Each structure stands twice: as C-alpha cells, then as structure tokens.
Amino acid sequence: MKSRLVEKLSALRQNLDCGHFILADAKDADMAWGVTSPGEPYGGAAATKTDKAAARSSRYRSIADFRDQIREIVRQGAVDIMLASVSTMDLLAHREGLFDASDVTPAIRANDATDVWIPRGGNYRQSPSLPFASCYLEEAQYGSLMATEDGEPKVNLGLYSATFNNSLDSDYATLEAFREFRAYAEQCGFHYFLEVFAPNIDGVVPAPEVGAFVNDHICRMLAGVPQSGRPEFLKIPFFGPEVLEELVCYDTSMIVGVLGGSSGTSFDAFTLLAEAKKHGARVALFGRKIKDAEYPLSFVSILRRVADGELAPEEAVRAYHGELQKLKIAPRRELKDDLQLTATELSYAR
After folding, report:
1. From CA 10, how far away is CA 3, in angstroms rounded?
2. How far apart are alpha carbons 309 and 253 in whole angstroms?
3. CATH code linked to domain 3-344
4. What CA–CA distance (Å, rounded) separates 99 from 109?
5. What tens digit of pLDDT does each residue of 35-80 get?
6. Quick one: how far is CA 191 from the chain centroid?
7. Using CA atoms, how far apart are residues 222 and 218, in angstroms rounded to an integer?
8. What is the CA radius of gyration of the chain?
9. Domain residue spans in the chain?
10. CB–CB of 316/324 below 8 Å?
11. Strand locations in the chain (E)
C-alpha cells in the first residue's frame, strides 16, 4: 500500500479524531453489470473521443473510456484508493505502471459473490448470495500466476465482500469462504478491506433490524480472527447515524467506512459523506456517484473538500455547479433540483 494510505490508517487506529479521512473510487463495476458498467455517455466539454463514438453506436460508454476516467482520477490524486477489476489493474498497474509515481493506492475486487452478478435479464439476486471469486490474488499482485514473485507486488490491496441473508446454508458458505480467503491473503502477504452488504433478499430480516443484523454479523465474524488476519478497514451501507455509531463505538480499533450507493443528486452524495463522517465513519467509497457525474474530476475534487471539512454539503453542490459552468458542461439537473435530498436513508438529515 502507498505511504499516504498507510499513514492515514496508522493515525486513525491511534485516534479516530486525528483529522484524516480516506476517500476511495470504486471502478469495479465490470465485475457486476458487464456492458452497461461504464455508464451512459456524458456530453459537453468533458466528452472524450471514445465517448462521442459510443454515443453514436451504443447506449453505453466503452471499457476503454471507463479506463481513461480511471487514469485521469489517479493522476488528479484526490482519492486515496482506486478500486478496479483485476483485468483493469493488469493493464493500468502492471503493463502501464500508472501507479508507480502516484501516492494513490491501487486495489482490486478480490471476490465476486453471486449477489453482485447483475447481467441484463439475470435473476441471481433473487437467491441468497453464494461465495465465488474469479481471480487469484497472485494475479492481482504480480500480473500472472506464472510471474516471478521477486520484488514488491504492484497491487496488494483488495476488497472482499460478504452478504448474509439469515439463511443457514448460504451464510455458512459465506463464512467458510471468508475463512479460506483470509488464510490465503495472509499467506500471500495481501491486504484487504471488508465490505458487508445488507441482505440481498427482501424480508429475511425485519426492516428496522437490518442494520443491527449487519453489525452483529461483522462483530461475531471478526471475533474469531486474530489481528494478523483482520481487514484494514470495514465498509457498510449507511443505515443511519445510530447504527453507524453503534459499530464505531463497539471497537474503536476497527476503522469503519460507508459505501456510496446509487447515483442520486449531488446533494445526496455530499450529505452522505458529511453525515457519515459526523457519526464516526472515516472512509467513504463512491462508485456510481462518481462514474455518473457530469464531470468526474470536478466531482471528486469537491468530495475531497467535503471529506476534509472544507465545504458543507449545500456549499459543495453550489461549488460543483460553478465548476460545470466554467467548463461549459450542462448539468443533468438544475441547481435547485440538485440541492434536493432524495436518498431515503438520509431523510433524517433534512
């Protein structure tokens, strides 16, 4: 891991109020959606040549354009972690050396359980999540299973996700796979962070108890793990301030983060970040909110300023629209509409 991330994690483990906040960009959507992963083309001054070609020939951008966005954000340097698929990191980290002179830490999605299989026409998410991993960790680290392991690995951080559905069979399989993964990771000297989703099956846990269900699973699954096998940090959906504070207070040595969720308005994104930080989160990982922004570079720079306490959410929306205006990029929403809070999990923040 790059020194910037190592230093932030070390400081946060000593004191969660040290002032650091870790911002990550999730560009691993190709592990879930396939062709639709890069998103719809965006226009204006921000459009690239591949963007414009995609707009003529397809409803969606190409993976090449998606990777161009990754290159731009890494070079910008506002995020601490760039998460992508192994195939993308093979190109960018191993073949191009994109991260060699950067202090942004590259990371890969280390598993792709069935609840993230979302092909068009698919119905896998209607069944309880089952564990699966497409990649081998050595491929992420060294670019190939046959590559020499001399020297430092190019990529040595990964996201491992788990989903519990209150189902003995599927939850048992999920925990068994996690035990195997963390042993494998420790043997490889590979670092990971842990993401635990809400159940992917509706109604298996009463709605008011979903956050508590996730918290309890995290605490009990990590109770059997020594320090050497623990994740660098956690990532969960934002279930509201009480659930987040409960998990943070349970064990202050666990650094807790939130995931960004669906696109929504700019105010949704900036409010989520500010509220999560206020209630104890020290990491935020945004995917669709960055990918679907009119101009991701400006959006990320504003996210960074919110994370660092420089801008309040409403100020951030206005600043973002000001950037779009300078770049002559038409916003998807008028300012008054982009200042609306639409995420239901943030309704208490009105």
Report:
1. 10
2. 23
3. 3.20.20.70
4. 17
5. 999 988 765 444 555 555 544 556 899 999 999 999 999 999 999 9
6. 16
7. 6
8. 19
9. 3-344
10. no
11. 22-27, 81-84, 105-109, 157-163, 191-197, 234-236, 256-259, 283-286
pLDDT of residue 146: 84
Give the pLDDT confidence score for residue 176 in this predicted structure.
98
Cβ atoms of 300 and 290 within 8 Å: the answer is: yes
Q: At what angle do helices 266-278 and 313-326 cross, to 10 degrees?
A: 140
Residue matched to tokens 């590559």: 147
User: What is the rounded CA–CA span in Å between residue 92 and residue 94?
Assistant: 6
pTM above 0.85, yes or no: yes
Helix (H) or strand (E) holding 349: none
Residue-wise pLDDT for 189-240, tens only, equals 999 999 999 999 999 999 999 999 999 999 999 999 999 999 999 999 999 9
Picking from 318, 220, 216, 225, the residue whose alpha carbon sits closest to that of residue 265 is 318
309-318 contacts: CB < 8 A, separation 24 or more?
Answer: 309/277, 311/270, 312/274, 313/267, 313/270, 313/271, 313/273, 313/274, 314/267, 314/339, 316/266, 316/270, 317/265, 317/266, 317/267, 317/270
CB atoms within 10 A of CB 334: 9
Q: Tokens 């099956």 label which residue?
A: 201
Give the residue carrying structure tokens 């699954």: 221
Instruction: Mark 103-126 as b/e (b = at least 16 C-beta within 10 Å).
Output: ebbbbbbbbbbbbbbeeeeeeeee
